[in-house]
Specification:
The chain is α/β, with parallel strands linked by helices. The chain has one domain: 3-Layer(aba) Sandwich (Rossmann fold), CATH 3.40.50. Helices cover 40% and strands 17% of the residues. Strand 5, helix 6 and strand 6 form a beta-alpha-beta unit.
Length: 340
Amino acid sequence: MLVTGGAGFIGSVTTLALLEAGHDVIVADDLSNSSKHAIDRVESLARESGAAGDLEFHELDARDDAALHDLFASGHITSVIHFAGLKAVGESVDKPLDYYRVNLGSTVSLVTAMRDHGVRDLVFSSSATVYGPEAQSPLREDAALSTSSPYGRTKLFIEQMLRDVAAAEPGWNIALLRYFNPIGAHPSGLIGEDPRGIPNNLMPYIMQVAVGRRDELVVFGDDYDTADGTCVRDYIHVLDLADGHVAALHAIDRFHGCQAVNLGTGTGHSVLEVLAAATAAVGKPLPFRLGARRPGDIAVTVADPSRAAALLGWSATRTLNDMCTDAWRWQSTNPFGYGD
């Protein structure tokens, strides 16, 4: 099977899970926002665990039609998990054309190559950002869809494009996996989240404060209608997320076209709760201060994961403490990430 973007945070952990489940995996990644060290460590972990699957890596851009054709021409690819793309909400506001060019362009090229080579099983990396601000948590897959960032719109547009493809051509099985807030790391401490520049998400920022790379965490708003006034999100361990992809791949024949599935825990945690759990994992106070609300932030975003349980036989099992402990193991072992 093919995994695009398999050297990234979620992609690398999922690639390892696929190898351990016995799948042979071809990873395609241009390394523009990831590291080849992640693939090397995945290979090492797979050997140590006795994983039955084989791993093959190709450094390529998923928009490269000729390179994709050569990969599929081998005849070894029967299914695809598509992670490749840009993913920072704030950056997408500043660089919208980059996001449309990369995220939409790579998906058009990939799905075209799949069609041309008779591959019809696809698991797509979508996002809970496709849910509109008026949608009420817990969010079901049939909730209202809209988004306020170019990043979110690329996910929304790709979802619609894939629905159109599945409706036009019989035989497609497409899983649109809507992630909530992936955090944590592999328990080995060898593969984890390594954002370029200033982190856009809460957990990697907290971890960089913990190792001294950032001075303090700013908590954006403490006057929301929540228990402690800070925003509540559905945080999911990246290992649970990886297991969700394996489950989706194994259940892909049940999709019969194109369906969306939430991958979340169904439980929300506030910013201050996450900070407290991270502080306990790190074992020392972490400096923070309260700041003003950020435009566009919603008070509560939590998944209804019941469709994933029914369709995939999957549910998240790891706790917030697990997520923080594993994130700290990764960051303390690799204070500067992969060091690229």
